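Table S7 (text form). Paired inputs.
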Amino acid sequence: MGVLIVCESSFGNTRHIAEAIGAGLTKRGHHVALYPVESAPREIPDDVTLLLVGSPTHNMAMTTAATRAKAVAEGAPASPAIGIHEWIDMVTPRRALLVRTFDTRTTGAFLPSAARDAARALKSNGFHGAKTGESFQVDPRTTGLADGELQRAHEWGMALADLDPGATVTAPPPAV
């Protein structure tokens, strides 16, 4: 399986999660290409059989230019020129491609998230195989990933290695 991971990250947390997911897939023998959103391809290569799309959650949704600027004002090292939402609008869809979304966030599991928004936007753009994947927790006190989240992302990546078109793959629950 060829896997393309497209990731937006402000503070680096979502990128670290994407790398851990990719490492899990690689460990299971899959070729993984990870791109920051601003340099991600606008045409999905034919050899890609799984697309993973990751974004931080800002204000319980995908980022906007304003929320990315606010993140920089709050200490993020840089802001991507475009976010996942803009990339979704530009990418050429592949109807049957398997797509899973993921995000990082500080809010609870039942609140809106960038992963849910991205899955909806991808479906609206013609990626009919898009489903919401996982949310990974950021500690609001430190703005770093919560304990155990990188391991959980790695395990989810290994589980995604066995994904078939009708499967729903979930990561282990967060550590308590």
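Next pair, protein 2 of 2.
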Amino acid sequence: MTTDTDTFHFTRAMPLSADRMWHLITDTTMRESWGAPGDHVLETITADMRVGGVERHRCGPADNPEFEVETRWLHLDAPGNAVFTEQIEAGGMTVGASLVTFRIAEADAGSTVTATVAVSSFVGPEMIAEFKAGWEGGLVNLEKLAKSEAESA
């Protein structure tokens, strides 16, 4: 089977400062609250958020989080840039991988968050669509969380 690839760019205006967005994007508990779309969950197994650190997560439908994700932090430059890789497994087989770059910049009404996600699927092109839908849904959750945090401040 061939390897299918794509790159997605997402930009969102957020109502929080870059420092506060950094916390939402990099804190393990915060990522669990926004990182999975819709009725899916993201559960942290191990967390080591530092350059070179490896984290393990389980994600998927709440009743069966079948995907295991290994996240490796490559670059952390608070509050502006976070870069990590993800290796996704299901049933003991690696189904895909990604390189994710978050950029956070101060803006007039808060900050601008840009996520660039380069993905490779090892199980066919339909996995690319799943990657994209997952990131779109997760970023919708991140926007809602940022709005809620701004309103409670």
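Residues 4-152 form a domain with the Alpha-D-Glucose-1,6-Bisphosphate; Chain A, domain 4 fold (CATH 3.30.530.20).
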